[in-house]
Batch of 4 targets.
Target 1
Amino acid sequence: MQEERVKTGELAEFLRTRRARLTPEQVGLPSGERRRTPGLRRAEVAILTGISVDWYTWLEQGRDIQVSIQVLDSLSRALRMNDIERKHLFLLAAGHLPPSNQAPQNKVSRLLQDFLDRQGESPAFVVNSRWDVVAWNQAAILVFGDYEAMSARDRNSIWRLFTTNNAKRMLGDSWEANAKHRLAQFRANYANTVGDPWWGEFIEDLHQQSKEFQEWWPLHQVINVPEGEKLLNHPVVGSLRFGHLSFQAMDSVDLQVTVNIPLDTPTIERMRKLLSAVNR
């Protein structure tokens, strides 16, 4: 209960500060008589949002009331919130991020690409919200395949995991656990996108191409598989043992960075052998 009171209090204060920074002219309303305090009035926000003044007042008073996605979206537009502020609003009011209304990011900054390239013998790559691999380093190409030469569909890590023999061959006995884990993460992203036809088409195609996907998708499974270690059977150098670390890029929450770090000396030596063959 204490946690909920803190959250509703934060929401109330956040809405008041967003309201206070705007003028009627900025949102297309007449300024009217001189105001004693800066910003919009509660009634004006209610008009812009399409809700009652009482209901909006309850939000600013920190009352424990349920707020729909539609109302939160209306509030974010009425109060001229940017993408970061919109996400903050949803987390405070609903406890989850808002549905994505933007196309997935397909490029990374020069700084992030430089970070990938500096990982040396650690295969590193970046995926967007659809699990498309959008950036990678040379080590990732040598272990997982030449992303540059792949089609857009084949660069999707979920598609490759479920539809290619290469993924099953490299992961061996751990393929099923890894596939179920990735599927749970993919479903979480799917739940965060509303009305995007790409997802429906992609999921239907996976149903047609993978009997495992067809069997597991309706189960809505959410599992917790440790991501600390991965053993791969590389077709050229043999066994590769990695610990892998994934994190979001702070300047773009649509992107997830994964770095596979060699865990033993043989893996380091085998990765160096692969890299040296390319750099000759």
Target 2
Amino acid sequence: MQLSIIIVSYNVKYFVEQCLLSIYRSEGIPSDEFEVLVIDNFSADHSVPYLRQQFPAADYPQLHLIANKRNVGFGKANNQALKQAKGKYILFLNPDTLLTEHTLADVLRLAETKPDLGALGAHMLQTN
């Protein structure tokens, strides 16, 4: 497993949906080389059932939806997912992030050329 993608969610089911769609549109990385862990911090907007309906486990086996029974906070939720992550590399994404089709492949290609890499940031673009 090359990559674990961690997304913490709280009352943003439509943002998470768009983020996940951008991940699954990625080119250059086979779906069995990454996993996505969405940690929901006890959302009141029914995020977890909505995402389970939009991304059925049979079609998205690499997606792990974790429903917290209380809001543990952003940092703790990230650490919670990190303990379960199996990837060689970890990508923390905010739920309102949209990736280009080549982002994941480009990041992994660069990471493989830097054996002492500790962290990597991406150029962020906004609609304006």
Target 3
Amino acid sequence: FEGTSIREITSEAKCNVAAVNYHFGGKDKLYLEVFNRHLIALRDVRIAGINKVMSESGGNVVLEELLSAFATAFIEPLMGKSSGRRFMKLMTREMLDPHIPQNMFLEKMIMPTLTAMQNALVKTCPGLEESKIPLLVFSIVGQLIHAVRVKAMFEQADSANLPVFDLTEMVEHIVAFSAAGIRAATEGKANAQSSA
């Protein structure tokens, strides 16, 4: 961010500096708008994936179907296009050297997605303790982000000794592993209540 001038940006975009200043008020606000547009697009894809599986299930969604829809909606935009991969790198850099307001990512991405997933999990697993759901969702997201980063590292590495990394297989594993954990949390609550 610091090493790129507004002139370099406008040269690549084939526009003039005055247009950026007029529409965005400078490099900082242009950056915020680009980040905001990507966040909203990613958020909308993730929430649409959750909503789609919930509406198509007729109220009888299987936990693995919900988790698979969420995982697919989470990963596909980051893997399919070069812009998705670039945005993943940008989000990683933002974590290390922030330029956006601290609450932007929370308000635009995390809370709306968490709310949608929480509502879906409550319907899918009625015995699940609602206070535990954020931890479950963050655990799933952490696994997915790690899978995307590892896949990118494996693709860039020049080593024949690396194991084969199949992202589809990894997502299936994350779904199965997470579903088992969620069921264990649900059953653990039921067992605790029955013994009390």
Target 4
Amino acid sequence: MKKKLALYLVSAVLLLATHSCGVDEKENAVLSPYAVLHSFKIGNIRSEYPSFTSAGEDTLVAKTIAGSSFPFTINQMSGEVFNVDSLPYATNLDKLVIKTSLSGYAKLYVDSLDSYEFFSETDSLDFSYPRKMRVTSADGNYVRDYTVTVNVHRVDPNLMVWDDYEAPEVSSPSRAVEFNGAMCIFGNVGGQLSVAMSSLAGEPEWSVQSLDELPSAVNLSTVHSFNGSLFVVAGDGLYRSADAVNWELAYAADGLLAIVAASDESGEMLVATADKLLSTIDGASFTAVGDVPAGFPLYGVSIASYTLSHNSNFVRYMLVGYTTAAMDKAPVVWSKLSTEKGWSKFDNEGNPFPCPALEGLSVVRYDNFLYAMGGDFKSFYISRDNGITWKEPEDFYQRLPKALIGMKQPFVVTVDSNNVMWMVTAGSKPAVWKGILNRLGFAK
């Protein structure tokens, strides 16, 4: 009996102690002098954003934006609250529900005209402009002000925007390539082999110079940059230039047809005759590395090379072109890794989306994918699987210039180091078009 009584007394003492401690803690919390905003979150947002129908007409598409995908940063020194990753374009910010955590039993107020009103998290707020919020300590003696800015993309990041400019005096553009910080357009001016050069930024201002040292049999469509020089295939071999104007014979070899790879990442350039593949690391000495495979593209060739996303030590070569000089058959796609000896052809048998047989077909790598264009400029054809399948974009955001759609005319295309796609068209309406996906031009 004494033992039970002792246990009862101990339990009673502990209960009273716990109750007393809880009261003290609550009183301390109520009287807390702290006024701090510890976290700020937004709820899900139902919004509408502009899009296009399959007929190319404007429309609105409803979309739910997950607020949890956009964390907010709180700078306690400056009192700034903001999201580093902007919300998607056209997100409606006029009715946002927020969730906050404050120090102790502090209270939150929001600006309303020239005063502050108590804020309940069951209410929604208009964050289409920066809002001031005030945290008041539980004892009422301390306040801390914050400015909340909800960032949203002001332009559609996936929209490709084009500007057109006056074309250089090159009547038959054969090749466009960036070199030494300038855009170089190779072609013909009044029967003379020429190059037009302009800086990359802003509106192009072209300087045209003749290429007197190149033989008339040169194939200007084969100009490529490698190892700090430009190279081009001519009738009697391979020519090199350090400035795009002055050229010299780098390697004498009759029968060269195409440059089929030129990669600064791997440090190798490959050129092809009708039956042999030759490799060089300096553009001066060449070594035969194998026979040209049957069905290999040697005409109207577009090449690309890039490191693998998961291993920068490996370079993928992509090759798109034709097997005949007439370019009258379907284009073929070949590929190899820098560590492989042989090339692989992509078999189109059973492929519902092969590389399109477009007149004047040109392929460039843009936004980490392969873009094919030509014909009547109806659309891009994009390969997102390294050349296996080619599809028109379904969202109608990655578009060619509207002024070109339906027009068949000679053109050249390239992508510069600023993520700008350049298209130079000839024919009845010569022009220089510069296009970029908005998000590729955003400041980092």
